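Q: what sequence does this backbone want?
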């Protein structure tokens, strides 16, 4: 990032943690001086509505009417992913002000997203950390396995199984482990579906479809409030919002289940 020239104009992404400043259902637009940003630092991270989009350096405790990034998942994918990029980069720069190798101060590089140590004898570059996690929809005949996580116990929302990839583990191994740990079910025929950046604060959701192999539902009670098999032709519970890869996985699985009669 570098100091903002007062004449610079475009859209501005101002963040605080996983919150963004999104007044009137859009990012603020105009010149830096008009928006009171001339004393901040920023970097262009893309384009928004055919105009430059600048990520503004975060100021802790800044008083604004913030919008939680998750609540904007219904935006067009390109826009939502740009917001994710900004939130993740701000998190990266905020947590990499000093070199993890020698402890000296770092500076943002201009040729790529990185923070470089300023000590002449070191020069180590750190890059944004992306934590991969799997998310999987499991089907059995004409049924789909859905779980209500502890954090959704009040809303009664049911969704797919998800979890972080561990060191030395393939995505497919993570799928098998997470489904077994959370529900007691073994799966087979794991197929890649798609992915989605998920900046809370720096995840990448990697989606899969899988088939039931064996086992009865046995809850991991520390994380899962309930898990059930739902028939594709019967009423479903509250599901994740539009725009999430979780809902896309559920809809794709329901289509597969319903096609079994055709």
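A:
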């Amino acid at each position: 990032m570098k100091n903002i020239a007062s004449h610079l104009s475009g859209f501005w992404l101002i963040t605080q943690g996983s919150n963004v400043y999104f007044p009137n259902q859009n990012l603020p637009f105009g010149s830096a001086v008009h928006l009171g940003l001339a004393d901040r630092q920023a970097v262009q991270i893309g384009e928004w509505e055919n105009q430059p989009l600048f990520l503004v350096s975060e100021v802790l405790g800044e008083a604004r009417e913030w919008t939680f990034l998750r609540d904007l998942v219904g935006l067009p994918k390109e826009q939502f992913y740009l917001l994710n990029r900004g939130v993740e980069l701000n998190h990266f720069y905020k947590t990499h002000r000093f070199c993890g190798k020698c402890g000296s101060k770092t500076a943002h590089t201009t040729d790529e997203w990185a923070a470089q140590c300023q000590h002449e004898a070191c020069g180590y570059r750190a890059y944004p950390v992306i934590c991969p996690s799997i998310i999987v929809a499991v089907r059995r005949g004409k049924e789909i396995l859905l779980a209500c996580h502890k954090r959704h116990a009040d809303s009664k929302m049911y969704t797919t199984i998800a979890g972080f990839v561990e060191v030395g583990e393939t995505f497919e191994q993570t799928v098998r482990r997470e489904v077994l740990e959370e529900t007691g079910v073994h799966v087979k025929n794991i197929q890649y579906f798609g992915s989605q950046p998920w900046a809370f604060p720096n995840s990448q959701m990697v989606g899969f479809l899988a088939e039931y192999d064996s086992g009865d539902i046995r809850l991991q009670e520390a994380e899962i409030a309930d898990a059930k098999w739902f028939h594709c032709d019967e009423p479903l519970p509250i599901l994740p919002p539009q725009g999430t890869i979780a809902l896309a996985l559920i809809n794709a699985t329901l289509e597969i289940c319903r096609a079994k009669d055709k």
